[in-house]
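Entry 14. Structure prediction run on the chain below.
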Amino acid sequence: MSKALTKTDYNFPGQKSVYHGKVRDVYNINDEKLVMVATDRISAFDVVLPEGIPFKGQMLNQIAAKFLDATTDICPNWKLATPDPMVTVGVMCEGFPVEMIVRGYLCGSAWRAYKSGVREICGVRLPEGMRENEKFPQPIITPTTKAEMGMHDEDISKEEILAKGLATPEEYAVLEKYTLALFERGTQMAAERGLILVDTKYEFGKHNGEIYLMDEIHTPDSSRYFYSEGYQDRFEKGEAQKQLSKEFVREWLMANGFQGKEGQTVPEMTPEIVSSISERYIELFEHITGESFVKADTEALTERIDKNVTEYLTK
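Output returned:
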């Protein structure tokens, strides 16, 4: 069984601090650069599951790097280099405390709200008579606050963002413009792969007074994809869409009585379950990128990352 990286504790040259997120560990280098290690931890329902998924971090890091490189003509982004298959090094940005969620189709939490009678999400009016997985007339932006660890992100409207001073009107206009342009590019790239980019999220920050795209983009952890083939037929019949996202992990958890609620316990993650999740992620990687996934050597995983990052930072 390949090794999974679930915990990091590095001391890189110039390191000032480290932030351990749900799935990524971010090291601050001299308040100038960030070393983001995509671990193999996996979260669902805001809970980090007890077992790591081999190669998950490598896959997400490489997908994000590909899309960051493919969108530099739209907006600047934080990426400087990927010195290791599981690591991106980038410029340090002061992040906006909101996530820009953009939806092209009515599904997920938006559909659940709509089905219960809600017709306005984050200040955006939704048309009457829509059905699950139906395409919106044009993509909508439904931002959320960026929650602290263990807290849930909360929906927020553009008006509330401006009223709370989380962004100026000028900044928000840029965030909105970049969000829609990135989603359009992601949609085009997905279509070339026989996929539909359903919804996704972007995070932005400021570097030297300029707005930069940060974090990962268009990965199956931050996005939902449908297969184009059969979409219309399934939609017309009211059938579930064939998805390309980590939704299958949530479905497995729900089928085993876990939705992150108090008193619930995560079902046992057997080696077979872990292996099947890893294989599904490889399938996601290959569909989204159109490239074969090449497994990095995991024999001395921690040491490999330490060596590669240290060499990059000291060169």
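Helices lie at 56-69, 108-115, 158-163, 169-192, 231-237, 247-255, 271-289, 301-314.
Filed with the rest of this week's runs.
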